[in-house]
Write a structure and sequence with these properties.
Chain lengths: 430, 430
């Protein structure tokens, strides 16, 4: 197929959309040489065409009607950068039914509706590309699908939420507490007014669901991911972690085990010499293990206008090249298998426990006994005087089944000598 | 095109070839699902078919005649893992002329003869893929060509030679000198009997030439890369670097500047908080900067049987998919431009200088004057008493043109108060 240019339509012109517009219009010659044809933005869906956007654009490029884009026979690629599920999913589904290739940055939609959308894409010989949905500008979807295709990936550990990584970095460096750092992050625009999806771990869980599905060739849905946020992490926990040679990070962890897939997002103590321990501020990184490659890490900016637009643009170029060569859909869904997702109680981990106990002889013994009774063995214990009557005890366990640990914790919380269990954080030793 | 399996031929069955054989034969079902057809190794070129290889293989698979593979019409993909230029280049050129796609791990060949080979591939609608030629298992060629295609890449800094990184890591951790570490690395098989290509920086230079050519869309040949190895690095330099908050690494650096391309391989002092500073042992990493993505890093094992075979296999799968869809050559050479490579004298850098001087008043002033006369300004100075008559002086300059620095060093070496200039190492502050 020989054409002078491939026409595309944008659904949305928010932060990422503006970045895509800038790259596509600013690098047109470079793009033409790479693709073999130009890329022309024909229409953009916006709510308010009159809004000032800081871009030089003709008014005629705007439409307020999605159908003008998804039903336009000239438009071959739909770039979805409006986010959300409603009405986005409907637009994307219709575009695929019309045989258009879709490039999206929408992690919520891909994580929850990937199966249905891939079936539509396949049925209509269209590409469905979503590199930008995970870790912004960092190439991870294509590396997983193509570059590591000879591997059996056994494990992914990611820092995939910039907001929480920024907050934990600040708490670690300055010794400040969660609430204070959150207010500061909100003032700087690094955290949203409603920070639930970020600090609660849901954003990371969606990204993990997408990565695990590709890496393990078996679909993992967002609600199959165990999720725990960083809201309970205190300056005291971070300080103890440091004393024990760990750093606290919000990790997105997926493992492919003989008993099924493990998928969990939670704060964790990570050894200071782990490659992920040096990933600070708003940076993201994905550390993975494959049977051939060994361990590898992909590091970069996980969000922001231009990094995310970089990933969207790369997908647009690939979709355009496939259209020119008439090979849309050449690489499709890779969920060939149907592996179970393990119950969290059956996973195994090490744990850090901080608790307040009455400071008298025999208390530590009673706590150690309760753990031992549930087959939880202890790797290290720190005990610090808090006041005349209370001691703060910090324990790190050996690897133990989560169910046993939870059972032990229930019993320990009820011991008369234990005033309170202040925090329990998992420890990830690779 | 619908076929049950795509037949491939291997040129060579050394370390990497054995890894490829293991992955292709061990993951056949997984590969079939990804590609849409099986991959079958039909023939393997070896010198001695009778040699024991620790693999279960039929004797009939071996041939000692390359033509049996490159002229076999059934064989669609040639996997070149024999290395070297002679007779490899001839075989690969003939295979491409026969319309066969070629997958190679051969950095020497791609760096020196990429242009000619790409022209052959294009003329015969074949793929030429070489992910394994740079940084072993780490995906970097495809990310540069596809995932970052929306970016203008301005800079690449790589640690791309595992042998020297292992040696420098050991020297840093143990305070040992170059010769001792080299002997140990040779005994462990991490360094070759003739270590020149590794410790002299030539291996890294070839990899840098390949990466720079792709990143900057303009061919950089290996002999256009300035090369300096690590043979002159001493334990003393590493200790001083540490005192100044730096670590010594062998860096492969390429920059795309308005005045032309900079391409250089040399040891450098790198700030301890740089992401590359934590890349230790035999690990490799490529740190790059693009106008949209910002900075990103790709980290992993840069060599070894299985990591390199992982990259070769991914290329085989892509070549096979392209054959099935009849779109060989869809992504070809991307050297669209012809940018000059800057003379090393015109580049600019900071420098660390360690010298031995007579310990008497006015010596430091005379040295500082000589630098100042060539417009070299000093950022920091350390002076240590060595014995009654000698002082060791360690200087770090501000950023200065290399030519000026070399001119100043010539004059300083001749100052009567200077006994010797012990070492000069560049400092890379991003």
């Amino acid at each position: 197929m020989s054409v002078d240019s491939i026409k595309i339509g944008l659904l949305g012109l928010g932060t990422v959309g503006r970045g895509v517009y800038r790259i596509i219009t600013g690098n047109s010659e470079n793009i033409r040489r790479r693709v073999g044809a130009g890329i022309e933005i024909k229409k953009i869906l916006v709510r308010n065409p009159a809004k000032e956007r800081g871009l030089e654009m003709q008014q005629a490029i705007f439409t307020t009607t999605a159908e003008e884009i998804i039903n336009d026979p000239e438009i071959k690629i739909i770039v979805e950068v409006m986010g959300g599920l409603e009405p986005t999913l409907d637009y994307v589904a219709k575009a695929l039914k019309n045989g258009k290739s879709v490039v999206t940055a929408n992690k919520d939609m891909i994580a929850a509706q990937g199966k249905m959308l891939f079936e539509l894409a396949d049925a209509n010989q269209a590409d469905l590309l979503f590199e930008a949905s995970v870790a912004g500008g960092i190439p991870i979807i294509r590396p997983l699908k193509q570059c590591l295709a000879g591997n059996r990936i056994s494990q992914i550990i990611g820092i995939v939420n910039g907001t929480t990584n920024y907050m934990l970095t600040k708490m670690t460096r300055e010794g400040t507490d969660f609430e204070a750092v959150l207010r500061e992050a909100q003032a700087l625009g690094y955290a949203e007014a409603d920070p639930t999806a970020d600090v609660g771990g849901l954003d990371a869980a969606r990204k993990l669901a997408i990565m695990a599905s590709i890496a393990f060739n078996s679909r993992v849905l967002p609600d199959e991911v165990y999720v725990e946020g960083i809201t309970k992490i205190t300056a005291a926990d971070i300080a103890y972690a440091k004393e024990l040679n760990y750093i606290v990070k919000l990790l997105a962890i997926a493992k492919d085990t003989a008993a099924g897939i493990e998928a969990r997002v939670h704060p964790a103590l990570l050894p200071l010499d782990h490659p992920l321990a040096a990933v600070n501020d708003v940076y993201n990184a994905i550390y993975l293990t494959g049977d051939a490659i060994g361990d590898a890490m992909f590091y970069g900016r996980g969000a922001g206008e231009m990094p995310t637009a970089s990933a969207v643009t790369a997908d647009i170029l690939n979709a355009a090249r496939n259209i020119l060569h008439q090979v849309q859909g050449m690489i499709s869904c890779t969920c060939f298998e149907d592996k179970p997702v393990r119950s969290m109680r059956d996973t195994a981990c090490q744990y850090y426990v901080r608790l307040q106990a009455v400071d008298k002889p025999g208390v530590l013994a009673s706590i150690a006994y309760a753990f031992g009774d549930k087959e939880v063995s202890l790797a290290s214990v720190l005990q610090k005087q808090k006041d005349d009557e209370t001691a703060e005890i910090v324990l790190v366990t050996h690897t133990v089944r989560e169910g046993n640990m939870q059972d032990a914790l229930q019993i320990i919380a009820q011991l008369s000598a234990v005033n309170s269990v202040s925090n329990v954080i998992r420890v990830e030793e690779e």
